[in-house]
Amino acid sequence: MATLKMQTRIAVKNIVFATDLSPASFAALPFAAELARYFGAKVFGFHVAAPVVYPLPEMGGMPTPEEETQGAGQALRERLKEQLAGVPFEVVIGHGDIWAGLNRLIEERKIDLVVIGTHGRTGLGKALLGSVAEKIFRQAHCPVLSVGPHVSWKAQGGGETKEILYTTDFSAAAKAAAPYALSLAQESQARLTLLHVIEKPGAGDLSNPGQFIGSAMELLRETVPAEAGLWCEPHCEVEIGSPGDVILEMARRREADLIVMGVRKPEAPMGLITHFGQATAYRVVCEARCPVLTVRA
Fold first, then answer.
1. Nearest one of 212, 214, 279, 204 to 242, comparing CA atoms
2. In this structure, is residue 7 part of a structural domain?
3. What are the pLDDT digits (tens) for 231-260?
4. Are 283 and 247 in contact (CB under 8 A)?
5. Backbone dihedral region of 260: left (phi > 0), alpha (psi from -120 to 50 degrees) or beta?
6. What is the pLDDT of residue 265?
7. Which of 38, 61, 82, 165 has its CA 20 to 30 A from that of 271?
8. Model confidence over 42-59: pLDDT tens digits?
């Protein structure tokens, strides 16, 4: 893998905060707010209203679909106003398919980053950790910051980034994510750990994965240019094992505040395929105790 050239400052002008108005999804709002203040960006609060079902005449007193949409928009507006003091924002209420509406917003408003808070069990949270999350990770042309159910704003030190974990297999997808890891480490003056995982050979495979550790370590060192200007020398790790297990354990061991990983659009119709294989990104987002930034190749 060729050494990356020195990167300029990441430009983030427009951020989408996608929410189903649940506490789980709003857990990501402080992160969106902090990023918006740092980059001087505008935030688009995006919510998909429930499908339009008109009540029967005998069901008097129930709110109309229009009233429910207005109520959702007002609730989101009040919450954004509360937490985005000094940050320009706009509320966008969509209808129908979540990904279709979000994708349209990304294209029309030239979105640079999508921020989602996920729970994985109910409402939009469940969708974002299921089929919709798959579409977002694979198809969004901008990075996606996912704040999973085990992430705490307070535990994260109010969004302070001191340690970044960048995972790579030296593929095009991983290379697309590298500039974000490098730039964020530079701007935050954060420590940067570079991780490559060599999967254990399957049953009947007599190859020795240990023979690749030296060359992988050399490729990791070449990832960061000498002129990168990082706060300290990047820490390189090559591990053998299950990618999901190793990434989560390394994040815990290094007390990572952010995980950066590349994803690519799979040929299969379902299931996240990252540079580490099927469903690794999905699992990391679900189980990580820090936000996960995914970048599509």
1. 279
2. no
3. 678 999 999 999 999 999 999 999 999 999
4. no
5. beta
6. 72
7. 165
8. 999 999 986 655 555 555
CA 294/CA 263 separation, integer angstroms: 6
Q: Do 273 and 198 fall within a single domain?
A: yes
Task: Label residues 206-229 b or e (16+ Cβ within 10 Å = b).
Answer: eeeeeeeeeebeebbeebbeeebe
Least confidently predicted of 65-69, 104-108, 174-178, 181-185: 65-69
Return the closest-CA partner of residue 41 out of 158, 141, 143, 171: 143
Residues sharing a CB contact under 8 Å with residue 231, sequence separation 6 or more, in sequence order: 185, 186, 189, 190, 191
Q: What is the CA radius of gyration of the chain?
A: 20
Residues 90 and 117 in one domain: yes
DSSP reduced 3-state for 216: helix
Identify whether residues 24 and 120 lie together within a single domain. yes
113, HSE (Cβ side, Cα atoms, 13 Å):
25
Residues 180 and 290 in one domain: yes
Number of domains in the chain: 2
CA dihedral 161, 288, 166, 188 (to 10 degrees): -10
Range with top average pLDDT, 154-158, 187-191, 228-232, 258-262: 258-262
Instruction: Indicate which CATH number applies to the domain containing 23.
Output: 3.40.50.620
Say what the pLDDT of residue 223 is: 87
